[in-house]
Design brief:
Length: 351
């Protein structure tokens, strides 16, 4: 069985504004170490004994940067598929399925997630492979360690083998009390958006569950052009496809969906608070990047990509200076960054 990684790199990552923006989203930046998020993702599946060269799905404006970053770590993608417009994960994964061989097992990976235990991740992929080869649509459920309200959940059903379960239900983001009940129940996992899917099954399910998306993808690929390792779907046809996630388009409707629960130190780094939690801190609980001086300050995330950033006598703050903007907010409030993005857009300032 050929397991071909499909790395999704089309997102804008605006929850980490002002550092992450449409022109240089978080997956193209180094947030947790020396390598960028994209590079970490590619290296996680760089073992040629286990994985075929990856397919990259990305925004056309990032093509040169992506190729440069992959070259830097010695990874050569099988193909760089460049979306002329963002249309969410269902069309993106559909493009990959049409570009791959019918029997390929597509390991779908967001490019902006952190995984601390790569061994546990690869073991889960190997456990899922026989089911995916049989035509099951396999998702990887992240074993929860807290009552998180920011993620969707997966309810496990009947056991299929010693690692996998049929999916009983996909559940939207719960309130706190409901999330606490899920944690106590023990049969709920976070939906991390990582999948193992046979290419031909992706197309079959899209044609059955979302025929308009499937038709648009066939049209876009029929008119696609290839040059120098890049594939450009027909722009007009692709732009006409409705934006939809693979969860809504396929996973929640199919009757052959399995989940493999896994504990692998996963985070989607979906907020500045998440990055503070994930990153190593000094003795005062400070996460500092760039030219930062923290005086009598505790439990802060401080980052500057330009000017010297000095704090005195503060605690529990997030302060980020990047590009033409400075963000200051209390820790625990980073989900409100979207408000900052919308406010700057309304003023006509920022990207």
């Amino acid at each position: 069985m050929t397991i071909r990684p499909v790395i999704l790199s089309g997102g804008a990552g605006t929850r980490l504004w002002p550092l992450s923006r449409a022109g240089r989203p978080k997956q193209l930046q180094a947030l947790t170490g020396e390598r960028t998020m994209l590079q970490d993702t590619a290296m996680r599946v760089a073992d040629p004994a286990r994985f075929a060269p990856p397919l990259l799905i990305a925004n056309a404006r990032h093509a040169d940067e992506i190729e440069a970053q992959l070259t830097e770590i010695g990874v050569t993608p099988a193909l760089l598929i460049l979306e002329p417009a963002g249309r969410n994960t269902a069309p993106a994964i559909g493009l990959a399925a049409l570009a791959a061989e019918a029997g390929d097992l597509l390991l779908v990976l967001p490019s902006d997630h952190a995984i601390g235990d790569a061994g546990a991740f690869r073991a889960a992929v190997e456990a899922a492979a026989p089911l995916a080869a049989q035509g099951w649509l396999v998702t990887f459920g992240i074993r929860p360690d807290r009552p998180e309200t920011g993620y969707g959940y997966i309810r496990r059903g009947a056991a299929l083998d010693d690692r996998a379960f049929a999916v009983e239900a996909f559940i939207e983001k719960p309130d706190r009390a409901t999330a606490e009940s899920y944690l106590a129940d023990g049969f709920y996992d976070w939906n991390g958006g990582i999948f193992l899917l046979r290419a031909d099954r992706v197309i079959e399910e899209l044609e059955a569950q979302a025929p308009d998306i499937a038709a648009g993808l066939h049209e876009a690929m029929t008119g696609a052009r290839r040059e120098y390792g890049r594939l450009h779907p027909a722009a007009k046809a692709f732009a006409a496809i409705r934006s939809e996630s693979i969860d809504y388009a396929v996973m929640e409707k199919s009757d052959r969906v399995a989940v493999v629960p896994v504990t692998m130190g996963w985070s989607d780094i979906g907020s500045w608070d998440a990055l503070h939690d994930l990153t190593q801190k000094d003795a005062n609980g400070i996460v500092a990047n760039g030219d930062v001086v923290a005086i009598d300050s505790t439990n802060c995330l401080l980052r500057s990509d330009g000017p010297t950033l000095v704090t005195i006598g503060v605690k529990d703050l997030i302060v980020v200076a990047a590009g033409d903007a400075v963000l200051i907010l209390p820790r625990g409030e980073s989900q409100r960054v979207r408000e900052a993005v919308e406010a700057t857009k309304a003023r006509g300032s920022g990207e």
